[in-house]
Structures are given as structure tokens and as C-alpha cells.
Amino acid sequence: MRDGTVASLFSLMLLAMAMSGCISSDDDSSNGDVNEDPVDEDFQGLDYVECMIHEDLERCWNVLVPSTVNLSQQVPMIIDLHGNTLTMENQRALSEFDEIAEENGVIAVWPQGFDNSWNSGYCCSSAGELQLNDTGLIVEIVNKVVMNHSVDENRIYLTGWSNGCSLSQKLANEHSDIFAAIACMSYYLLDDPVPYYTPIPIMEIHGLLDQIILYSNDAIHLPNLEAQEHGAIQNLLQWADMNGCSGSVPDSNQPSVFYSVQSFTDCNNGSEVALVTLYGADHNPYEESYDIFTGNGGTVDTNGIAWDFVSQFSKEVQPEE
Questions:
Q1: pLDDT for residue 27
Q2: Are 137 and 114 in contact (CB under 8 A)?
Q3: φ and ψ of 188, to 5 deg
Q4: Could you tell me which of 178, 181, 139 has the C-alpha nearest to residue 311?
Q5: Separation CA 35–CA 23 (nearest Å)
Q6: Which residues contact 14 (CB under 8 A, 6 or more apart)?
Q7: Cα–Cα distance, 71 to 69 (Å, whole number)
Q8: What percent of the chain shows pLDDT beyond 70?
Q9: Among 25-29, 45-49, 98-102, 234-238, which stretch is predicted with the lowest mean pLDDT?
Q10: Residue 172 burial (CB < 10 Å; 0-12/13-18/19+)?
Q11: Which of 261, 259, 260, 263 is nearest to 298 (CA)?
Q12: DSSP label at 161?
């Protein structure tokens, strides 16, 4: 540990909490602006909410630094983005990426969208109607967590559900220099490729029975004509084209009882592009139910599939092409 003992860091953390008012425990709300000084440097076992003012709005996020984090090393970080109408607390409980973080010694972050939504493109959110700069928000949150904790900046990953998945893909498109890989659930990239995008690994996970974001196309959001161009297969092929993958069809097919994985594995920059099709899942791809969405009933370890995919990749070392 770089600065003193665990005990002294804990004392400093408590003092910072008392002075700034912008960090809270699981049971407290968070109100003030973010402190410019780091929360702490390498303290493990933290679970707190931090807030700042972004575009004249208070924006908050939950950070988990599990007790399993190795304090002698820089560690991976994963950002988990909630769907439209959900909160960061809902997403954490549903995706169970806190368990992934604990098991693997990973820092996990759950940001909170404005009015429980994200501006990720043409679809259906208060944040989108206001044209909020949510990609800029997430990048700023990443920078804050990197400043406060010992994060390996070569292993920053994205995941999320629905509206949070489309924002994950928007972030991958616009900020491929920051994120090492993404694996998200139940939505598509809703923007055109930016000219400065460089290939990173992409996985999208989708239920065949999705009644909100259809597997075949996004026609539920018509009359927006762009929606006709988006479906799980189209999304796979678009990312394969963006990543310069070889061939017009996936070169890998891994079927199993409850799901299959089709992948382009020969892509530029050592990247891959994959689609996981869940045979028995609706819009909720996770094991647990949420609201009217029954999920996959425990048949597929969806968050485990996502983590196994992204955790293979680092920006530091890329395989030779």
C-alpha cells in the first residue's frame, strides 16, 4: 500500500466523508458535489455512492471495491449500466455483477441515469429527449474512479441492460480508446460508426422471446425508420464490419441446450464480435426476474458469460493479426 496503513486510510476516508458530504454508504443518500481529491488511494472493502454536478444536474454512481481486490496491483473495472426505468440499485440486484466483482477482485461501478434513463440514440428515454451528454458523463465517472482507486486502465469494461446496452455500444463506438471490451444485454448500437473508432471486442446477448427490443428488428419503435435496420443479427454484422472481421458470416458457432454463441474471431486489432442467443429468455436476459420480465429462469449464467468474454481482453497486449 502506497500511503500508510489500512487504519490510517480508514480514518482519512471517514474524515473525507464527514467534510465533503458527497459519499455515502449503502443506506445513505448522496447530495454534494464531488471532491476534487481522491476518496482514498487503495482501500479495499469499500461500497459507496458518489455524486457530482454534470450539465447542471446532480449525477451519482455506486462504486464497489471488494475485499478481494489485490491492493498490490492495478485491477480491472467494469461499468454496469441500468435499463430505462431502472435505478442503479435495481441493476446491481438484477445483474449480480457485485458477485462477479467479489469473486474476481474487480472494481464495479453502477451509474445512475437521469430520470432512470440514458441518451443512447433515437429510442425512448427522457435523457434522449433532453439530448444529455451521457457518454461524456460515463467517461468523467471513469476518470473519477481511476483517480480514486488503483484501476488498470488497460482493462476497463462495459456491460448493461437494454437502454444501458445501447449506451454501452455508443460508448464503445465513440470512446474505443478507453474501453477494452464490452458485453451487454438486449439492445443495439443506434448510431453510425464514428471515423475515429478502432476495433475492440463486442458481445451482445439477446433473448429470442424479447417482446420489447425484438430479436429480428427494432420495429416496436417504428415509425422511426432507423428501427427497421436494427436487430440482433444486423447488430452482429454491423460490428463485424466496423471491426474489419474476415468473412460475411460468423466463423464460430457454439450451440448448447439453452443458448448459442455465434462469433467473428478473425478481426482487426485482435478483437472479436459475438452474439449470444438465449432460446428461452424475454427482454430480461438475467437469471432473476424483474417486474413483468421472467428472465431465463436460471438456465443461463448470463453475467458469467459476459464477464468471461470481456475479461479475456486488455488494451496492453493485443494478439498478432
A1: 38
A2: no
A3: -130, 170
A4: 181
A5: 9
A6: none
A7: 6
A8: 81
A9: 25-29
A10: buried
A11: 259
A12: B
At 226, the pLDDT band (50, 70, 90 cuts) reads low
The SS3 call for residue 126 is helix
> How far is residue 101 from each of residues 37, 48, 268, 289, measured CA to CA in Å?
25, 15, 29, 21
Q: What is the biggest distance separating any 2 CA atoms in the chain, rounded to whole angstroms?
A: 60
End-to-end CA distance of the chain: 38
How far is the CA of 207 from the CAs of 200, 212, 213, 273, in angstroms?
23, 10, 9, 17
Q: Give the SS3 label for residue 196.
A: coil
CB atoms within 10 A of CB 299: 15
With cell 422511426, the residue in question is 224
Whether the predicted pLDDT of 16 surpasses 60: no
Q: Computed from CA positions of residues 5, 8, 14, 15, in that sequence, does the dihedral angle turn out positive or negative? A: negative
Cell of 241: 464490419
Among 285-289, 290-294, 309-313, which stretch is predicted with the lowest mean pLDDT? 290-294
Sorted by where each begins, the domain ranges of the chain are 48-310
Q: Predicted confidence band at 286 (pLDDT cuts at 50, 70, 90)?
A: very high
Within the chain, how many helices (H) and strands (E) appear?
8, 11
* 30 neighbors 60 (Cβ within 8 angstroms): yes
**What pLDDT was estimated at residue 297?**
84
Grid coordinates in use for 110? Answer: 453502477
Query: What pLDDT, on the 0 to 100 scale, is given for residue 166?
Result: 96
Eight-state DSSP code of residue 306: H
Q: Which CATH superfamily is domain 48-310 in?
A: Alpha/Beta hydrolase fold, catalytic domain (3.40.50.1820)
* Nine cell digits for residue 285: 436476459
* Cα atoms in the 13 Å half-sphere on the side-chain side of 142: 25
User: C-alpha cell of 190?
Assistant: 443506434
Q: What would the pLDDT profile of 172-193 be if each residue is shown by its tens digit?
A: 999 999 999 999 999 999 999 9
